[in-house]
Amino acid sequence: MKRILIIFSFFLYFSLSLFAKGDFFKQANDYYAKGDYENAAKTYELIIANQGVAPELYYNLGNAYYKLGEISKSILNYERALRLKPNYDDARINNELAQQKIIDNIVQAPPFFIMRWFDLLIKFLSSNQWFILSVGLFLASMIFVLLFVFGNSLQFRKISFYFALILFAVCMTSLLFSGIRNKQLKTEKEAIIMSGIITVKSSPDKSGTDLFQLHEGTKVKIKSELGKWCEIKIGNGSIGWVENQNIEKI
User: In the predicted model, what is the mean pLDDT of residues 35-44?
Assistant: First the structure.
């Protein structure tokens, strides 16, 4: 009896959580539709803090901040949406529009074209999507293995064998991409400059030499952290130190 009550309580809590999330989401969307972008942003933030993250939530939050003119926060949330869902076209397009409003026009150091293509391919899907694709390809390859084993004609069995081999090879590649993408998300730390304008230092200290300045909305890579300082790298390869309070991690 006690176990039944526990299970019932769990399902009741789960159902109420889903209802509350849907209710808050509708309320946030209503605020946005009415042009009350400040309350819309606050409600989306509340959902993310209490109910969990989703690319659609970050996308909507980015839109609300964009309407409020808070470009750095809009870019931050578009980037977070794309981190969860790399092929999210709406988030990518709106992020590009927001990027046009930032002051820093950093010329990216062009990577070797093969590495650029490989990186684009890896980031085309999320780690979970690559994994799901690999599972689907594995099941398909097993079907062709069965067709090979139980096929009637020699020609049909040969075709089934080659299809099974190709699908299994692509399956292993997808699984490898899933692992690489997962490692990227854990090791590649990126952030957005949130302060209006900051001076990048040569060392993790305010007395360090001034190297260059960055404005809000600029995307940087975090190389290392030391106390309240972060070593960052920008698109053109320049490196320096900034205080943690001036950036927010994606």
Answer: 94
**Length of the chain counted residue by residue:** 250
Angle at CA of residue 65, ends 60 and 33, nearest 5°:
55
What type of residue sits at position 109? A
Cα–Cα distance between 13 and 51 in angstroms, integer? 13
Residue 250's contacts (CB-CB under 8 Å, 6 or more residues apart) are 76, 79, 80, 83, 190, 191, 192, 219
Residue 75 CB partners (closer than 8 Å, separation 6+) = 62, 95, 98, 99, 102, 192, 217, 219
CA 244, 247, 248, 250 dihedral sign is negative
**Cβ pair 210, 90 in contact under 8 A:** no
| Distance between CA atoms of residues 126 and 156, nearest Å | 36
Query: Percentage of residues in the chain with pLDDT exceeding 70?
Result: 88
Tokens describing residue 132: 């799901």
Q: DSSP label at 107?
A: P
pTM of this structure: 0.72
Residues 151, 157, 162, 168, CA torsion sign? positive
Q: Which amino acid is at 127?
A: S
Quote the CA–CA distance of 28 and 22 in Å, as a whole number: 10
Instruction: List, edge to edge, every strand of the sheet that includes 210-215.
Output: 210-215, 197-201, 239-243, 229-233, 219-226, 189-193, 247-249
